[in-house]
């Protein structure tokens, strides 16, 4: 089918979409819409910076390290500052937490506090930024007890408590993927008018797939269930699965999730035996939880292998978790392999 451009009168903007969705909720005050609007403004600014790249001198390393001991890119810091500045003044937030900042970020005294908390990974896939591959911003919204100055413990809530999760992809198109617990919708930034337009309504992950995503260089550190699963995929038509598999690994979680939302697949950044202090690479509060919410809302599954990601009770704001998600049938198979004692 050939795609034709829609006339502007058919287009639904993100703002219209959210306002119409909120109208259906009895206690919606419009605050959430304003909060989301500020997140979106930050992401448009980030999109612009990422797009200008070397022209405005934002590529390369900043020479500093974050709490995880990872070397920060200049854009890790710039995008973090953009998010904080776009969100701290609005009066919708009790506080924020960022992958790039050690402790939760307080709302400056001069601004009112609100009823939400936002957690974010301001630049996901930042190792790809200098080679001009897709990067993104991931965010998660929780409710905040009103009138309290939130401490770290107030952020340590299960993924099931998220009221909204989303990510913005800075790729060939800039796209926003969003859930408020009522399915997943995708919006494309129309650069000419500066608005996100609904282009991917009710995204659903196909249950069947023949595509997996994993960093194969870590193979020697994997646990037996993961080894077995990948071996069987690679054995292809002649192996126990009786079909050939394809592999993709962008090394930008946002891009790998977006591909899986569109055409299915399974993603693994599993527990590995390198360092028991670091069970997996991806961060629960800024990456795993928001993506798990989106994946489940699109009909997929998200697990550590041992438990549902959204059910994890967090103990550290920067904790890492093993992550396996995507097409339902494949994730179920992996969970089954983890449950078989002979595999462990
Ligand atoms: P970040 O850039 O926010 O630190 O996240 C990078 C993550 C994620 O986007 C990706 O899936 C994974 O790291 C890639 O890991 P490898 O470098 O091990 O492939
Ligand atoms: Mn990340
Ligand atoms: Mn990051």
TrEMBL record:
Which sites bind substrate?
124-127, 215, 281
Q: Cross-referenced InterPro entries, in alphabetical order?
A: FBPase_C_dom, FBPase_class-1, FBPase_N, FBPtase
Annotated cofactor note: Binds 2 magnesium ions per subunit.
EC number(s) on file: 3.1.3.11
The pathway entry for this protein reads as: Carbohydrate biosynthesis; gluconeogenesis
The protein's matches in PANTHER family, at most eight in alphabetical order, are given as: FRUCTOSE-1,6-BISPHOSPHATASE-RELATED (PTHR11556), SEDOHEPTULOSE-1,7-BISPHOSPHATASE, CHLOROPLASTIC (PTHR11556:SF35)
Family in the record: Belongs to the FBPase class 1 family.
Q: What is this protein called?
A: Fructose-1,6-bisphosphatase class 1
Q: Which organism is it from?
A: Methylomonas methanica (strain DSM 25384 / MC09)
Phylogenetic placement of the source organism: Bacteria, Pseudomonadati, Pseudomonadota, Gammaproteobacteria, Methylococcales
């Amino acid at each position: 089918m050939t795609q034709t451009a829609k006339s502007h009168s058919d287009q639904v903007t993100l703002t219209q979409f959210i306002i119409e969705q909120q109208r259906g909720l009895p206690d919606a005050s419009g605050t959430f819409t304003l909060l989301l609007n500020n997140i979106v403004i930050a992401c448009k600014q980030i999109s612009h910076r990422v797009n200008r790249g070397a022209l405005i001198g934002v590529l390369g390393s900043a020479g500093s390290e974050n709490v995880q001991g990872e070397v920060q890119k200049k854009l890790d810091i710039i995008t973090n500052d953009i998010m904080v500045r776009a969100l701290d003044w609005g009066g919708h937030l009790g506080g924020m937490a960022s992958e790039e900042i050690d402790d939760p970020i307080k709302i400056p005294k001069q601004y009112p506090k609100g009823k939400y908390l936002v957690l974010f990974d301001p630049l996901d896939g930042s190792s790809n930024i200098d080679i001009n591959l897709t990067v993104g911003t991931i965010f998660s919204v929780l409710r905040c007890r009103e009138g309290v100055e939130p401490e770290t413990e107030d952020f340590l809530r299960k993924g099931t408590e998220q009221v909204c999760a989303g990510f913005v992809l800075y790729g060939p198109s800039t796209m926003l993927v969003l859930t408020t617990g009522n399915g997943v919708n995708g919006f494309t930034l129309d650069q000419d008018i500066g608005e996100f337009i609904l282009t991917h309504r009710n995204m659903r992950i196909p249950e069947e797939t023949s595509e997996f995503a994993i960093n194969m260089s870590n193979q020697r550190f994997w646990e037996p269930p993961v080894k077995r699963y990948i071996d069987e995929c690679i054995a292809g038509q002649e192996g126990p699965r009786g079909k050939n598999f394809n592999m993709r690994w962008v090394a930008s979680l946002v891009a790998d999730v977006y591909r899986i939302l569109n055409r299915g697949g399974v993603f693994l950044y599993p527990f590995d035996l390198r360092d028991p202090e670091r069970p997996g690479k991806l961060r629960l509060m800024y990456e795993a939880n928001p993506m798990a919410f989106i994946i489940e809302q699109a009909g997929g599954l998200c697990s550590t292998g041992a438990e549902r990601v959204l059910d994890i009770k967090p103990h550290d704001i920067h904790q890492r978790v093993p992550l396996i998600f995507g097409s339902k049938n494949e994730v179920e198979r992996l969970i089954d392999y983890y449950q078989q004692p002979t595999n462990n």
